[in-house]
């Protein structure tokens, strides 16, 4: 019974982690149909922001939850203005450009910080589940993931900005005819996606080694989850995270985390054979 | 009516013959002019140029955005390494290095192409597959992970891989010069074969599908099958490149599956020119020479340099060097001998771009 509780707790943590690392990617993909290949590096920048800020004496919660989205969002904004915006309408070139950005950021951070692994200590202790102990930090991850999902839903569903975002997503030309500037919206979307990636990096910094190449450890899972989820940002990310997070955690528990990732990939490839557009490409198409 | 010398079929044939001649000159000239170090370096270039050919074929001609071609390079390299350690004679391992990636591509491609997923999804799935293969092979350290007598070695890779030998003589491995002839000879051969494939009916259908998938389908071709076969051919070429790569250093490690390997080969094609076979080979030599030059200084990280080159080309020269040079050359030709109508030149430029 205790073991079942522990496994359930770990599955929830896995799902929450997937939600966190995927949401930023999902926002950019859902809105602009671009897979941002620099996503992992945006997370890496978020983690570095957290490490640097907490090293400089900033309160750990501020360093993890507030600063990374702001800093990385700003970086995303700059990159969108300097690189990405020239390539709209050329999807493959956009993806290649984000890949170039990804390599460039790895190289830049290696040059600035060196190719070493850093870390921040976890700010909270552990809890007991029956006879087992689990990290209380998992609850922080769950809360952040839930908060981010809820905030995205609220933003899209209840604000004027969200309405304009959805309108631009559905029909950019019509939106432009009604006085919206799609380029502005894309700019904001890219920055928002980058900020969410930064948040994920900041929150995950205490439980993962922070190094220039850390993004590669997460992107495989994030890409798979976005593909599995399909075009709807909140529902897609949520459902796919639930499905893949469960598979990943259960297989990882039985074998090793690497085999868990392999199982995730196999599940995703089987899924896209049946649902090429992802879950929300077929079901719940009108959801957000 | 005679076909003008600057028309497409003539140009294509001339380009093919020029490339073939250059390849043969390099093949036989390099051992006579370079020292051993230079020759070994050029062997590496030949292996990577073949890797470039694989990406250039699948992306430039079949229009399939494979972002994870390194998966097949790695599978080929590992298939060769594992089987040659077990068997000794290198004939079967070379064939396995081609067959294993092709088989893997057949399975993966079936799910991707028959699922009819979008181009972006294909890019992401192939990328993800290579990342996960990297993680998988990376996690095989320890003596329990072995295939036959070959230990996979995890992050450290497989050292001391026996070199190629003449079929049937496993005790007489080739020396550096022999490996050069094998690698460069294979490169020339694969180039000729790919040109033959592209000139065949099959190749024309593949290019037609790249140009307009719906139209090709309406005419009666099955794009899924043709894309799958093209994907398998490219995987086989990448696998052979992996085999040569393993021979080049006598060593293979999980980095062959890595993201930077997949990125590098994309950059070869982008720099050299999409829709050509010469371009990716030239791009490979150019970029590798740059990386080696960059490695001897510590100012600029090589990843940073690659990223800048990639973004620079996507933004400024998206068609790559070979098409740009070809267009410039043609313009010079046409200025010297004015041919009817500016529309012809413009149309030529447009098809050049479309490629």
TrEMBL record, chain A:
UniProt entry tagged with the keyword Cell membrane: yes
GO cellular component: plasma membrane
Signal peptide: none
Matches recorded under Pfam families: BPD_transp_2
Keyword DNA-binding among record annotations: no
Gene Ontology MF terms in the entry: transmembrane transporter activity
Topology class, membrane: Multi-pass membrane protein
Keywords: Amino-acid transport, Cell membrane, Membrane, Transmembrane, Transmembrane helix, Transport
BP-aspect Gene Ontology terms: amino acid transport
Compartments reported by the entry: Cell membrane
Transmembrane segments: 6-30, 95-114, 134-156, 185-207, 219-246, 258-279
Protein origin, superkingdom: Bacteria
The family this protein is said to belong to: Belongs to the binding-protein-dependent transport system permease family. LivHM subfamily.
UniProt protein name: Urea ABC transporter
Source organism: Methylobacterium aquaticum
Automatic annotation (TrEMBL), chain B:
Cell location: Cell membrane
One annotated GO molecular function: branched-chain amino acid transmembrane transporter activity
Keyword check for Endoplasmic reticulum: no
CDD domains: TM_PBP1_LivM_like
Coiled-coil annotated spans: none
Organism: Methylobacterium aquaticum
UniProt protein name: Urea ABC transporter
GO cellular component: plasma membrane
Leader sequence segment: none
Keywords: Cell membrane, Membrane, Transmembrane, Transmembrane helix
Membrane topology qualifier: Multi-pass membrane protein
Transmembrane segments: 39-58, 70-88, 94-113, 120-137, 179-198, 225-248
